[in-house]
Design brief:
about 425 residues, alpha+beta, Tetrahydropterin Synthase, Chain A, five-stranded antiparallel β-sheet, four-stranded antiparallel β-sheet, 20 strands
Length: about 425
């Protein structure tokens, strides 16, 4: 053993806690603590003393707790066993983190599941060295950045997944647009993760999300990007998906040698391309195709969509093209005589409220006892909600109110003009 031993640490700044390998220290040992460090002396698993920056001489005389533990009569020059830990209190701002495997999230805009990866860095400072050593470091000889990332991987992975999912849902944005919110997500994660680090004596000085991306080889992501690129192309050129499908169909027919209109279609398409992809193409090509397909196509009378001549129902609105006079029934306003549709609530001419007859849908004037069109008795209004009750109804279909008059004593059904219950004689109120 050297006469005077010098204990210090000048190693890598990536190490946050380091234990001096020799535990047998003689009195008069020189302990050198750098400006950004703090040294802690342990004896028997307990803290004997804490040393700040500077040069310190270790002896049983100037460490009273250690003197009581050693208690050897060697004139203050005896060796003693103790552990010296150096704690790095400097700021470490370049700790890299990332998600080792993609996080599966659902894109709220396009409704597909997308794997997401996140990367970034954070900074820390050891604020309470004793708590850091006791609760986190334990008996390992060295604690560095790798150890820190292993210990807290579950924390930042869980918080990152929650943050990304929350922003996608609450902001209603696509995964491909989330990089516009990196600052907000970084602040959100810093607030969520900092309390966990603080429990172990570590202060989280910053937490940054540098990038959130999706794997390029994922099948769903590749199809989504292709669709978005196609839509951008359509917006630039000036046509939509329906028109593109029509072009593809006509091109296929033009190249089909067995089609009777193949030559005409090919000529029409070539003529249309000569006029450009703008409005002139649409006008010239449309008139040509109308002359060719006059016997094969027809127009839906309800929504004006083009459909096959043999089709009965329109594939756009479901209209039955074989039935005639399918227009909605016109109803005359009982106040001004103007025509109204069945779905109307008020007359467009006079503003009179539409009181529909439950039998013929005619407009019944206010206070009328019978319908002026079908002559049937007007049902009563529900006392509970005002809804019109069909004839002989016992309960309101809207609110469940009982339209039957009953005796309060025995529950027997009564007529409207009954004054005494025929069953028990109770007066009817």
């Amino acid at each position: 053993m050297a006469v005077v031993e010098v204990v210090s640490y000048n190693g890598s700044p990536d190490v946050f806690a380091w234990k001096y390998p020799n535990s047998e220290l003689g009195t008069w040992t020189q302990l050198i603590v750098n400006e950004s460090q703090e040294a802690i002396l342990f004896k028997g698993g307990k803290v004997c003393d804490v040393f700040q920056a500077g040069r310190h001489t270790l002896s049983t005389e100037n460490i009273p707790i250690l003197n009581n533990l050693v208690n050897l009569p060697f004139g203050g020059r005896s060796p003693f066993t103790a552990e010296v830990w150096f704690i790095n209190k400097a700021f470490s701002l370049d700790i890299k983190w990332g998600t080792p495997s993609p996080i599966q999230v659902q894109d709220p805009k396009y409704k597909i599941f997308v794997p997401v990866r996140a990367f970034g860095q954070f900074g820390i400072q050891i604020e309470e060295p004793q708590k850091f050593l006791v609760k986190l470091v334990g008996n390992v000889a060295q604690f560095d950045k790798g150890s820190l990332l292993r210990y807290f991987r579950g924390v930042y992975l869980t918080k990152t997944k929650d943050a990304v999912s929350s922003y996608l849902i609450h902001k209603n944005i696509s995964v491909l647009e989330i990089n516009a919110y990196l600052d907000e997500i970084s602040e959100f994660l810093n607030e969520r993760i900092a309390p966990t680090f603080r429990e172990y004596g570590i202060r989280l000085t910053s937490f940054f999300v540098n990038d959130i991306n999706v794997p390029e080889d994922d099948n769903g992501v590749r199809k989504l990007k292709q669709a978005l690129a196609k839509r951008a192309e359509m917006d630039i050129v000036g046509y939509n998906y329906q028109q593109e499908r029509s072009f593809d169909t006509l091109e296929g027919a033009a190249t089909n040698q067995g089609s009777m209109h193949g030559g005409l279609m090919g000529a029409g398409m070539g003529l249309g391309m000569g006029f450009g992809m703008g409005g002139s193409l649409g006008n010239q090509f449309n008139s040509l195709m109308q002359s060719i397909n006059i016997r094969e196509m027809k127009i839906c009378p309800n929504c004006n969509s083009t459909l096959d001549k043999e089709a009965r129902f329109c594939n756009n609105c479901g209209h039955d093209t074989l039935k005639k006079n399918q227009k909605k029934n016109k109803i005359k306003c009982s106040s001004c005589g103007a025509e109204m549709d069945e779905g109307s609530k008020f007359c467009m001419q006079c503003g009179n409220r539409y009181n529909s007859c439950v039998y013929c849908k005619a407009d019944i004037p206010d206070g009328a006892a019978v319908c002026p069109v079908c002559g049937k008795k007007v049902p009563k209004a529900c006392p509970g909600c005002g809804n019109i009750l069909p004839e002989n109804s016992k309960f309101c279909p809207a609110c469940g109110y009982s339209a039957v008059k009953k005796c309060l004593a025995c529950g027997k059904e009564l007529d409207d003009n009954t004054r005494f219950c025929p069953e028990c004689g109770t007066p009817v109120k």
